[in-house]
Amino acid sequence: MSPLLSDYPRYAWHMLAGVRAKMESGLAAQRARDLAPWLDLSQPHDILDVGNGSLRPQYALMRNAGHRVVGIDFVNRPGISWKRSVYTVLRRLYALQLGIPAAAMDQHGLIGGNVGILPFASRSFDLAISNAAFEHFLDVPAVLADLQRVLRPGGMIWAGVHLFTSPSGGHNVSFTQYPLRSLPPGAEPWDHLRAQRRPFTVPLNRWRKGQFLVAFAEQFEVLTHYCGLREGEQWLTPALEEELADYTRDELTCGTLVIVARKRA
Ligand SMILES: C[S@@+](CC[C@H](N)C(=O)[O-])C[C@H]1O[C@@H](n2cnc3c(N)ncnc32)[C@H](O)[C@@H]1O
Question: Which of 63, 177, 190, 198 could form a disulfide with 104 if both were Cys (CB 3.0 to 4.6 A apart)?
Fold first, then answer.
């Protein structure tokens, strides 16, 4: 049995008890604070959610806040599966906990497709948001170039990137701990940067912090960036730090890199 199976009951509990809903609301509030010097989110805007995910958490919150929101993700493609049925229930639960009408979660603004080929007219959006998705995009420069095209001059981009170099960056340890607090039995910290005994289960571009910052700066004016979530300090012994000397302490312990950038006018 995969040790990650123990995560599913916790995931269910997070959904039932509203832990996930609270976390997503907190993220939206943080993003509004980050953007406040450049974009007033109390006014309605045209927003693109890049890699909106099956739960559609930020898509729903931003629509409910009065914005015109479009989401693009592979998972928006039509289909029938048990996983999709489970997500239908989870979305209802999520909406209920946030007091969001079910309509805010509907398919209305969702496009099934690849974020590297955006099917939108140039200069269509004021803001592109993306959470926990950029680390999965296998052609980041293509995504950024197309985002540059579909944003209006002065348009903003807010991205939260789950960094590969962090303890949870291999996406093969707990997916319900933010920050990661415990490792599956037998797993070594930063195994994905070391022996790689644990297989990866999702596509990952394995980009490092500096690569993201350079790629964003090639297309946008990077206004600010910071580490939104720290994890793993407790496992970073001097011996391990020496073994992982190719990586900075900041890279090894930053779970989420937040980048706020603007399209040049
Ligand atoms: C970890 S999920 C995050 C979803 C959501 N933003 C959230 O916070 O719950 C990453 C999403 O990116 C999508 N994705 C990855 N690569 C993609 C691509 N090239 N085009 C479209 N969607 C992609 C996946 O289908 C997945 O739904």
Answer: 63
